[in-house]
Amino acid sequence: MIENKPTYVELMETLQRERRALGLRNYDVAYKSGISVENVRNLLNGTQEPKLGTLHRLASALGYRIVLERKDK
Question: I need a surface site. Which of 29, 52, 54, 57 has the fewest CB within 10 A?
């Protein structure tokens, strides 16, 4: 892992690996999420930073959910 990599890039790499593992094309993810194919491609390759709602839709289309947890004190 690269030290200064933005967190969203790591998230997108995880979702990109899952997309491939599921055998889905960007088109399939776009259809399931309601996000354009171009935006799915840009999000998953880390060139576009997702808004929270977009991240939720993308993750949901790939069988994930977004969870907010409190940091340990």
Answer: 52
Structural domains counted in the chain: 1
> What pLDDT score was predicted for residue 1?
47
Which amino acid makes up residue 71?
A: K
Q: What's the start-to-end Cα distance of the chain, in Å? A: 25
Residue 16: which domain range? 8-61
Secondary structure class of 64 (helix, strand, coil): coil
Rounded distance, CA 38 to CA 41, Å? 5
Category of 38 on φ-ψ map: left (φ > 0), alpha (ψ -120 to 50) or beta? alpha
